[in-house]
Design brief:
alpha+beta; Nonspecific Lipid-transfer Protein, Chain A; 7 helices
């Protein structure tokens, strides 16, 4: 039976993180290979923009591209994060040149963003790829106040 999402509008960020962190691998894989993948990715990226710590991004001027691979039917879901003037904006289609590009599959993205995966281990095992300014890329997740499960 395909995994379905709860009504995400009723969940706080903490509840969303707990929900996705609590999914067994098979359920998360099912969800990320189905029709609701884009709903969950969009929700996480939208919330990510709101969780940017103004003190941590105030002096940043950067563009980060995220390529979330293994989309159903093939291809990649692409997102662009623009950090500028103390604000974080997410675009569904990249339009600017990135300082860094982060590439990983949908399941690993959800695990990374919900705090159930070790980004260093993912990078060392090539499950997480960073191109461009790699030192800068390693700092990006630290700009966000994302709760852990």
């Amino acid at each position: 039976m395909p995994q379905t999402l709860p009504d995400l509008n009723t969940l706080s960020l903490e509840q969303l993180v707990s929900y996705t962190a609590g999914l067994p691998d098979a359920a998360l894989e099912d969800l990320m290979s189905g029709a609701e993948r884009s709903v969950l990715l969009d929700e996480y990226f939208d919330r990510m923009a709101k969780q940017a710590d103004p003190n941590k991004i105030k002096d940043q001027n950067a563009v980060v591209h995220f390529h979330i691979t293994e989309r159903p039917g093939g291809g990649t879901d692409n997102y662009e994060m623009v950090i500028r003037d103390g604000a974080c904006v997410i675009n569904r289609q990249p339009v600017e040149s990135p300082k860094v590009t982060v590439t990983l599959d949908g399941v690993r993205f959800i695990k990374l963003i919900s705090g159930t995966a070790d980004p260093t281990k993912m990078f060392l095992t090539r499950k997480l790829k960073i191109s461009g300014d790699m030192i800068f890329g390693g700092k990006v997740l630290g700009w966000f106040d994302i709760p852990t499960p």
